[in-house]
Amino acid sequence: MSIKADNLIWKIGRTTVLDGVSLEAQPGKMLGLLGPNGSGKTSLLRLLAGLKRPHSGRITLDNSDLSTMARSAIARRVAFVEQHASTNANLKVIDVVKLGRFPHRSMFSDWTVADDEAVESALSRAGMTGKRNQGWNSLSGGEKQRAHIARALAQSPQELILDEPTNHLDIQHQIGLMRLVAELPVTSIIAMHDLNHAAMFCDQLVVLERGKVVASGTPDKVLTQDLLRDVFVVDARVETSPHHSRPHIHYLR
Amino acid sequence: MIRHIAGTAALLLFSLCVVALAIGISVGIGDLPIPLGTTWFAVTNKLGWTAVPLNRIHETVIWDYRLSRALVAAFCGAGLALSGAIMQSLLRNPLAEPYVLGISAGASTGAVAIVILGVGAGVVSLSAGAFAGAFAAFFFVALLSNGTRGGADRTILAGVAASQLFNATTSYIVTTSGNAQQARDVMFWLLGSFGGVRWPEFALVSVVLGIGLLVCLCYARVLDAFAFGDEAASALGVNVGRARIILFAVTAMMTATIVSMVGSIGFVGLVVPHAARFLVGPLHIRLLPACAIAGAIFMVAADIASRAIIPQQVLPIGVVTALVGVPFFSIILYRFQRPS
Q1: For A137, nearest residue in chain B (alpha carbons)
Q2: Which residue in B3, B4, B1, B31 sits closest to B307, CA to CA?
Q3: What are phi and psi of B311, to 5 degrees?
Q4: Interface contact B235-A90, CB threshold 8 A
Q5: At the topology level of CATH, where does A3-251 sit?
Q6: Which residues contact B1 (CB under 8 A, 6 or more apart)?
Q7: Closest by alpha carbon to A76, among A106, A116, A31?
Q8: Which residue of A172, A199, B150, B212 has the fewest CB atoms within a 10 Å radius of its CB?
Q9: Is residue A118 a contact partner of residue A126, using CB atoms and an 8 Å limit?
């Protein structure tokens, strides 16, 4: 068992954003979080990353309650890639990736060989080794996103949480990034909008609508024509792709 | 690695020598010019390293007036630049500066309350009043920005509101007081002056700044983690609320001490961190010492200029720093327009 959420309720003011959400991520698998805009995906990811506390319900990491864990202990285990993370400090890629070692170091401890290894392996996994000395402002959108993923990997997480990481990327970088995440040896939870990409890369899907889970399971169970019509309000046909044998969605006009 | 450390140490030593040289030059400038060598021997004599006979008048001027002034100027420059760098990082705003939380406005209100309204009945000094005013403004901002939970934008807006309120109060008191001389005195104090500072001021500012610099250096990595915002810092395991409150309190303490001592000297805290970033990059373990040293040099140089530009007359230090600062500020504005 990896991350498990049990009956989460979260409100902003009087508005209930998440209403009794439960899910369970399988170790080493990729869980896709789907839902229309405003369905609560980002809020749910923030709760799962321990950045906000649910008003009720419980999140557990391998049976330990997230609310009883220290911030730094959570950060040593769960890495979070935000949707809009920008900076006006012109850090080098290597400095950004090194930030990932923050939770593993105390205030006065020196940089260790283990830190170096984690950073190098994160850079190489994200394909950013060649860009290590580039300034943040000189990176393209795809490179920034990969640098964020490298930073998250440098945290040596067991769980990786990503909020719409393929936003604003071209198709090559979208597919490249999804493949990168799918091949990582960590449990990942990824919020996304592209249903075909979700079907291709995710092992498991959870669909949110107005703060409630309306479907969950494997892509072929979840992505049905009825669900597409009811939740996403689109007319579509779902077929099994002859190329990758995963569900493929044809949107009809 | 060892070469790297040796290089950094050499650079640090060199820049401290530049600070010392600037202080030496500053001591030499004035109605009675004093050669650099005399100042050097005056210091080494005092330390017991040498026993060179010196002109008594020179020695008196060095020890009683100019050295303390130059040292306080160096520390104030260092403190303002350091505070500015921390504000810019924490608030993620390139235009943030030490007074962004309303501290100088609060200090001015505290000062006029003492000087013009006569609060404290002559027992409380102008500095104490200014310090109290500065912290009143700081707490007002903390309250308005919802303690530690408010984000950067909210904190900046609260600071703007506080500055407006306290500046308006100051203006109200000054314009209704009807005493032109008092108003002039307050104006002069607001623009900043190292005129009255002696060794007790040096002792206070060096202790406050020493502690402040140490705390900030301990938080250098935490400040790096704020690069992508509060939430990203939190996701990296930073206790954001605690870090913000400690860093805000330390910068407020440093800034309030400086403002209450020498007035609100502008632009150092805004300009120097940007200049330092160009030189050593955005990582705080290098940026913070660089700010402290560059700020010290800049302020001592500005103090020299304030006495040297017009013979027989001392310009308010704030006027000099702004004259240098405004063109620099324009460049920063211009640069930050381009990339987006």
Answers
A1: B339
A2: B31
A3: -60, 145
A4: no
A5: Rossmann fold (3.40.50)
A6: none
A7: A106
A8: A172
A9: no
Query: Which of A42, A43, A71 to mutate to test binding with chain B, by most B CBs within 10 Å of its CB?
Result: A71
Residue tagged 């321990």 (tokens): A50
pTM greater than 0.80 (yes/no): yes
SS3 of residue A110 by DSSP? coil
Could you tell me the CA-to-CA distances from B99 to A34, A171, A199, B155 in Å, in that order? 45, 47, 53, 12
Q: Which residue from B279, B283, B277, B272 is spatially nearest to B329, judged by alpha carbons? A: B272
Digit-coded pLDDT (tens) for B262-294: 888 888 998 899 888 888 889 999 999 999 999
Q: Which helix (H) or strand (E) holds A60?
A: strand A56-61
Q: Does B1 reach chain A within 8 Å, measured CB to CB?
A: no
Point out which residues pair with A64 in neighbouring strands. A61
Domain locations in chain A as residue ranges: 3-251
Handedness of CA B95, B96, B101, B105 (dihedral sign): negative
Q: How is residue A77 written in tokens?
A: 């285990």
The mean per-residue pLDDT over the stretch A78-100 comes to 90
Q: How far apart are the first and last CA of chain A?
A: 42
The Cα B193–Cα A215 span in angstroms is 69
Which among B92, B218, B336 is the nearest to A107, CB-wise?
A: B218
The CA distance from B127 to B96, in Å, is 25
Query: Residue A242: what are its φ and ψ, rounded to 5°?
Result: -70, -15
**What ipTM is given for this predicted complex?**
0.88
Q: CB of B218 within 8 A of CB of A107? A: yes
Residue B77 CA to residue A124 CA, distance in Å, equals: 43
State chain A's maximal CA–CA distance in angstroms. Answer: 60
> Under DSSP, is residue A137 helix (H, G, I), strand (E, B) or coil?
helix
Print burial letters for A106-132: b (CB count within 10 Å at least 16), e (below 16): eeeeeeeeebeebbeebbebbebeebb
Q: CA-CA distance, B48 to A137, in Å (whole number)?
A: 54
Distance in angstroms (rounded) separating the CA atoms of residues B290 and B281: 10
Angle among Cα B87, B92, B94 to the nearest 5 degrees reads 75
Of B232, B237, B339, the CB nearest to A72: B237
Q: What is the mean pLDDT of residues A180-198?
A: 93
Give the span between the Cα atoms of B64 and B14, in whole angstroms.
28
Other CB atoms closer than 10 Å to residue A237's CB: what's the count?
11
Q: Are B22 and B297 in contact (CB under 8 A)?
A: yes
Q: Going by DSSP bridges, is the β-strand pair A236-240/A247-251 parallel, antiparallel, or unpaired?
A: antiparallel
Distance (Å, whole) CA A151 – CA A118: 10
| Residue reference for tokens 């006569």 | B118
